[in-house]
Write a structure and sequence with these properties.
single chain, 390 residues, alpha/beta, Rossmann fold, Methane Monooxygenase Hydroxylase, Chain G, domain 1, 15 helices, 7% strand, flat
C-alpha cells in the first residue's frame, strides 16, 4: 500500500468514526426556536447564530447535545415540531421564543407561541424560556392581559436586550447564562419525571384509589363553563359590534384627498369625536372579556383534560359534543373578519400622524390582538378535543 493510499484510508476511517461518534451523542432536549424572520434578518442572522452557539456551548459543558429546531432548516416545520412533541413523551422539550416588538405584532409568531403553549399544557416536560431580544415594555397597542404578553413575562424569561451591541465578552457571558438556565430546566424536568415514577412504584395499588378520589369534579367544571360561556359570548358579541362600528365610521368618513394639514386635522378631530362613544364601548367590552377569559380558559382546558382521561363510551362522547358546541359558539363570537383585521395597519398609520385618533388606534390594536389570541386558543382546544378517539 502506498503512503498516499494509506493516508487516504486513515482519513476515511477517521471521518467515519467522527460521524458515528457525533450521531451517537445523547440528546438531552429538543429546543424549538420561535422568532420573526425580519428580526433575524435585521440582526444579520444574529438570533439563529446565538442559539447555535448556545447548543455548541451546552455540548462543550455537558458532552450531550440539544436538538435545535429552526423553521428555515427543519423540514416541514409546521408539522414537524408538533410531531416531535407528541412522540417524545417524557423527554425534555423547550420552546424558546425570541421576543421583540415585531414578534409581538406578528400574527404568525403570536399564533405559533400560543400553539406551543397549548401543546405544553399540563406537561412538565415541556417548558417555555422566552429570550427578550428587545424590550417590549414601552410598546403601544398591546394589552397587558394579552395571553402572548403574559406568556412572555410569566415564564422564566431572560433578558437579551441589545443583542447586536454586545461585546464578544458580553455575548459569551449571555451564552453561558442561557446554557445555565437550560441545564436547570432540563435537570428539573428529569427530577420531576424521576420523582413521579418513584412515587408511583412506592405507593403501589392504593395510590390508584387515592388518585381517583382526588380527581377534579367533571360535573362541577361543566357547570362552571355553562355559567360563564354565555357571558363570554355576550361580551364577545358586544366587542365585535363595536369593532364593526369603527370600521363603518372609517368607511363613511374617508380622509380628505390631497387635503391641507388644517383639513386633515379637522377630519381627525371630527372622526375622533364621533368615535368616542364607540371607543368607550370597545374598552368596556374588552375589559369584560379580559376579566372573564382566564376563568373561562382554565375551565375549558381542565374540562378537555378531564375528558381525555375518561374511558371511551357514550358519556364521554356526550360531553365532547357538549363542549364542541360551546367551542363552536365561542369561536364564532371571537372570530374577526378580514376587513376588521385590515384596520390594524390602517389605524397604525392614521394614529402616527393624527394625534386625536391615537387613543382609538391604540385601543383597537390592543383589543383586536387580544381577541385574536383568545380565538386561536379556543381553536387549539377544539383541535385537542377533536383528537380524542370516540
Amino acid at each position: 500500500m502506498s503512503v498516499q493510499s494509506g493516508l487516504s484510508d486513515f482519513r476515511d476511517r477517521t471521518q467515519a468514526e467522527e460521524a458515528t461518534s457525533s450521531s451517537a451523542v445523547p440528546t438531552d432536549a429538543h429546543v424549538f426556536l420561535s422568532y420573526s424572520h425580519d428580526d433575524d434578518n435585521h440582526l444579520n442572522g444574529g438570533i439563529i447564530r446565538f442559539m447555535k452557539d448556545v447548543v455548541e456551548e451546552y455540548t462543550f459543558q455537558v458532552g450531550n447535545t440539544l436538538q435545535l429546531f429552526i423553521d428555515k432548516e427543519s423540514i416541514n416545520w409546521g408539522d414537524n415540531w408538533r410531531t416531535v412533541l407528541e412522540r417524545s413523551v417524557g423527554a425534555a422539550n423547550i420552546i424558546i421564543p425570541a421576543i421583540t416588538p415585531r414578534y409581538m405584532r406578528s400574527r404568525a409568531c403570536r399564533k405559533e407561541l400560543l400553539d406551543f403553549e397549548d401543546a405544553a399544557q399540563g406537561d412538565e416536560s415541556k417548558q417555555i424560556l422566552p429570550l427578550m431580544i428587545q424590550n417590549i415594555d414601552e410598546m403601544s397597542g398591546i394589552d397587558r392581559q394579552d395571553p402572548v404578553w403574559i406568556i412572555a413575562h410569566d415564564k422564566q424569561w431572560h433578558s437579551l436586550d441589545n443583542l447586536r451591541m454586545l461585546s464578544e465578552k458580553e455575548r459569551q457571558e449571555q451564552i453561558l447564562e442561557v446554557v445555565r438556565r437550560l441545564r436547570v430546566i432540563i435537570k428539573k424536568i428529569n427530577q420531576t419525571d424521576g420523582t413521579d415514577s418513584n412515587a408511583a412504584s412506592l405507593v403501589g395499588a392504593d395510590s390508584t384509589v387515592a388518585d381517583e378520589t382526588d380527581q377534579p369534579d367533571v360535573l362541577a367544571s361543566w357547570g362552571e363553563l355553562e355559567q360563564i360561556a354565555p357571558r363570554m359570548k355576550k361580551s364577545a358579541d358586544n366587542f365585535t359590534k363595536s369593532v364593526n362600528t369603527v370600521a363603518e365610521l372609517m368607511s363613511s368618513n374617508p380622509a380628505p384627498v390631497n387635503g391641507t394639514a388644517t383639513q386633515y386635522a379637522g377630519w381627525a378631530s371630527g372622526l375622533a369625536s364621533q368615535a368616542q362613544p364607540v371607543l368607550d364601548s370597545l374598552n368596556k367590552s374588552t375589559e369584560e372579556l379580559t376579566s372573564q377569559w382566564k376563568q373561562a380558559y382554565d375551565g375549558m382546558a381542565n374540562y378537555v383534560n378531564l375528558v381525555e382521561m375518561m374511558p371511551q363510551g357514550d358519556s364521554r362522547n356526550q360531553m365532547m359534543d357538549s363542549m364542541g358546541t360551546t367551542f363552536d359558539s365561542l369561536g364564532t363570537s371571537l372570530a374577526l373578519p378580514n376587513e376588521v383585521m385590515q384596520l390594524i395597519p390602517l389605524m397604525r398609520v392614521i394614529g402616527s400622524f393624527a394625534k386625536p385618533l391615537r387613543p382609538l388606534a391604540n385601543s383597537l390594536e390592543k383589543s383586536i390582538g387580544l381577541i385574536e389570541s383568545m380565538h386561536n386558543m379556543v381553536e387549539l382546544l377544539q383541535k385537542r378535543l377533536d383528537r380524542i378517539p370516540r
